[in-house]
Structures are given as structure tokens and as C-alpha cells.
Amino acid sequence: MRLVQLASLIVFGLAGLFLLAARLKRLGRADALIALLSVHVFRVLALFTIQAQRDGYPISNIAVTEIVVGDLLGAAIALAGILLLRGGARLGVLLSWLVIVETVVDFAVGIHRKTIEPLKVDVTGPLWPILAFFVPLVIVTLPFLAWQLVARRKEPL
Model pTM greater than 0.85? Predict the structure, then answer.
């Protein structure tokens, strides 16, 4: 599992460097931020954890709550940021920064939970595709989002 996550991080990172970075430069500031925030809206996939637990997947109620609350909060902030940026509101930039902070905190909580309650994920488990592919994608968007926020801070929305 860890090898697949590492491979996903490398592939998404390289795709970001060689494909996404050039595309983001051609977009306006708001559109570039919106593109990166869009990935975070799909963090609603965390709701799948509830069904996985009901289907017998061994994960505690505390872990499910932490996963779902953290990801839904990140998705909601990202969606609000997108809507504000589409309307040209500068508050969308602040929410973009908040997505970065919230995601880092969410991952820290997840890492802490994993030390307390190791998650048993195998390739047949219901959470495997999310952990192997979507989580690395979310991670890779963070430095690109920070780059856009810093490098283009003086550009108008």
C-alpha cells in the first residue's frame, strides 16, 4: 500500500511539474486557484468511510468521525473559496490559504490516529483506491496552491 501511495505521489508530482505548472501560468489567478481547489471539493469521498464501516470494515467510530469531519470541512472551505473566487471576491484567496492549513491539520490528525489505531488496508479493501490515489493527489495540490497564492499575490482576481 505504501509503495502505491509513494508511486502515486511521484507520478502526480511529476505530472504537476511538467503539465499542470505550465497550464496554471496561462490561467488567470482566480482560475488557477479554482482549478487547484476543485480537487479538494471531492474530499466528500470521505463519506464512503461510513459505509465501509457499516459493511464491516474495521475502523473505529472516532476514526470515522475524524476522517469525515476533516474532509467535509476541507471540501466545504474549498467550495466556498471557488464560489467567492468566481465572483471576484478577495475572501476566496483567504479561503484558499485556509484550505492549505485545514488540510495540513487534517493530515496531522490522521497520522496521529494511525499511530493509535493502525488502519488495515489491503488491495481488496473498500478504502484502498482513495488512500492509494486520491490522498496523494490532495497532497500534491497543496504546494501548487501555495505557489499560486505566493507567486501571484499581486495579480488581480
Answer: yes
Q: Using CB atoms within 10 A of its CB, is residue 61 exposed (0-12), middle (13-18) or buried (19+)?
A: exposed
3-state SS assignment for residue 115: helix
Residue 28 belongs to a domain: yes
* Residues 1/121, Cβ–Cβ less than 8 Å: yes
For residue 45, the SS3 value is helix
Task: Yes or no: say if 55 and 125 are a contact pair by the CB < 8 Å rule.
Answer: no
Question: What proportion of the chain, given as a percentage, has pLDDT over 90?
Answer: 83
Residue ranges making up the domain that contains 22: 2-151
Q: How high is the pLDDT of residue 127?
A: 82
**3-state helix, strand and coil shares in percent for the chain, rounded to the nearest 5:** 80, 0, 20
Q: CA of 28: how far to CAs of 10, 31, 124, 140, in Å?
A: 27, 5, 42, 21
1-10: long-range contacts, CB 8 A cutoff, minimum separation 24: 1/121, 1/122, 1/123, 1/128, 1/131, 1/132, 4/132, 5/131, 5/132, 5/135, 5/136, 8/132, 8/133, 8/136, 8/137, 9/136, 9/139, 9/140
Does residue 157 lie within any of the structural domains? Answer: no
Decide: 96 and 30 in contact? Cβ < 8 Å.
Answer: no
